[in-house]
Design a protein that fits this description.
163 residues; alpha+beta; Nucleoside Triphosphate Pyrophosphohydrolase; 3 helices; globular
């Protein structure tokens, strides 16, 4: 069995109905259109998950961030692959500018970066194992801060240059 550890970052700006969430759209060989998700990715050997999220957010968005509290953990299975994802609340450093487009030098799989209004997040993220824990957390309906899925319901072919 293959085990993949992921770390994603949850950045929220604004207040009340004007809140928005930082999302990235990534392309994969086995999907016809980009899939929206929180910025993040695979943990590298010797790296703590909090370091993974800061590195991945910088690579994908161009924003300098710092991992804060663990928002939630989710896990799922795609056949013989076990995915464990730690989602951290992240703080964007004041000197970082919000990326309006994909930053130069980023990985080939990032197609777009956007601050998405909270009311549109559920429509953008079509993958249930990503969408459902995030929306439950944002609504304050994830008291255990853990979600498990026996079946991921989606297969991702990872780019070969991803760590």
């Amino acid at each position: 069995m293959t085990r993949i550890h992921l770390a994603t970052g949850l950045a929220v700006r604004g207040s009340g109905d004007a809140r928005s969430v930082l999302l990235v759209a990534s392309t994969y060989a086995n999907h016809a259109w980009p899939l929206w998700n929180l910025p993040g990715g695979r943990q590298q050997p010797g790296e703590l998950l909090s370091e993974t999220v800061a590195r991945e957010v910088l690579e994908e968005t161009g924003l300098l961030t710092e991992a804060g509290n663990l928002a939630y953990v989710s896990e799922s299975y795609d056949g013989e692959t076990h995915f464990l994802n730690a989602t951290f609340c992240i703080a964007v450093h004041e000197r970082s500018r919000v990326a309006a487009t994909v930053p130069s030098g980023t990985r080939d799989h990032v197609a777009s970066v956007a601050w998405v209004p909270l009311c549109e997040v559920g429509e953008r993220i079509v993958v249930a194992v990503v969408r459902e824990p995030l929306l439950a957390y944002l609504r304050g309906e994830l008291p255990q801060r853990y979600v498990g899925f026996q079946e991921a319901g989606i297969t991702i072919e990872w780019p070969t240059n991803s760590a």
